[in-house]
Amino acid sequence: MKHELRVEDDEDGLTLAALVRGRLGADGVEVTWSRARGLVTRGKVSVDGVVVLDAAARVKRRQKVVVDEQAKVLKPESAATIVFEDAHVVVIDKPSGISSVPYDKREQGTAMDAIRSAWRHAGRKATQTPLLVVHRIDKETSGLLSFAKTKLAERELQALFRAHDVERTYLCVAHGRMEDRRIESNLVEDRGDGIRGSTRRVGQGKRAVTHVRAVEEMPTVTLCEVKLETGKTHQIRIHLAEAGHPIVGEKVYIRDFTKKGGELLPSHRLLLHAATLGFVHPVTGGKVQLSSPLPPDFTSELSQLRRRRGK
Questions:
Q1: 104 has catalytic annotation
Q2: CATH architecture assignment, domain 76-307
Q3: Dmax over Cα atoms in the chain, in whole Å?
Q4: For residues 282 and 89, is the Cβ–Cβ distance under 8 A?
Q5: Could you give the CA distance from residue 170 to residue 58 in angstroms, rounded to a whole number?
Q6: Does 187 have pLDDT greater than 90?
Q7: Helix crossing, 16-26 with 33-41: angle to 10°?
Q8: pLDDT per residue over 18-57, tens digit each?
Q9: pLDDT tens digits, 72-130
């Protein structure tokens, strides 16, 4: 059965799961929270023509939501692609919406699961080769993510990341007009209000440096290329938010922006993508240089932002 819904004014800001549960329930269909969330996470729900897998995504008034219970189940990890692999290293192009690694033993559908799924699909034994973590990207971020397959590669790659000898370029869409700049601060896990951020306290925090280049100015946002000189947790998201330009789709680092009257633009995902990854191979010594194009769910949001008129 297919349900076509239009988000009403009083439903503005609801989570996608809450909208599905409430509207299907109003049609006489008994819908539990677990079923509503499952419809979303299994790819049965689209918003304005884009399949959204995040049950916590917020809907906006007048958006068109389609619930198609007959749609093919979409597993996020099935969309992941191995872009480089040899005996020591594997690099995946991770979609938004899946974790780099499991945060508890019960979590499934991570990037590690995606790699093993690809191995099984190729007729290989998926559990005999170890996957060793050398870095992470956020669950909401798409793009290039590497793992080591041997202890030697793990040790050497971790050393490269610690020494900041890995080239990483990201593409993101920031609120407002963002100009080229270098951002440096010391990051702490709790800046005093329960979230990560920068501190001015001498001797505290870890040094973080981000280089931002404006690529395209649009009416209300800027497409940016971001290069990491260091790589701390949520570094890009924090630095841009503290600069007054949170990434579109940001849900955590928005308090300062909204307090100052900023309008958060709607997005089905965080518009942050790990576009390039370059490193010296930990065993062969050769240069590995990889790139990932913007995925369709990113370009779809970008197209809508290009058409949006500024106030």
A1: no
A2: 2-Layer Sandwich (3.30)
A3: 64
A4: yes
A5: 25
A6: yes
A7: 120
A8: 999 988 876 666 788 888 888 887 778 888 776 777 777 7
A9: 765 554 457 899 999 999 999 999 988 898 877 667 778 888 888 888 877 788 777 89
Locus of tokens 């005996």: 87
- State both tokens at 172: 């993101």
Sheet architecture: strand order including 64-68: 2-6, 64-68, 45-47, 50-51
In the chain, domain spans: 2-68, 76-307
Residues 6+ apart with CB under 8 A from 171: 215, 223, 224, 225, 226, 272, 273, 275, 294
Q: What is the mean pLDDT of residues 225-252?
A: 95
pTM value > 0.70 = yes
Please give the mean pLDDT across all residues of the chain.
88
d(CA 276, CA 292): 6
Work out the number of other CB atoms within 10 angstroms of the CB of residue 53.
24
In CATH, what class is 2-68?
alpha beta
Confidence tier at 59 by pLDDT (50, 70, 90)? confident
pLDDT (0 to 100) of residue 77: 45
The residue from 93, 138, 190, 193 that is catalytic is: 138
Any idea which residue has 């490269």 for tokens? Answer: 160
Q: Which two tokens stand for residue 286?
A: 């050769």
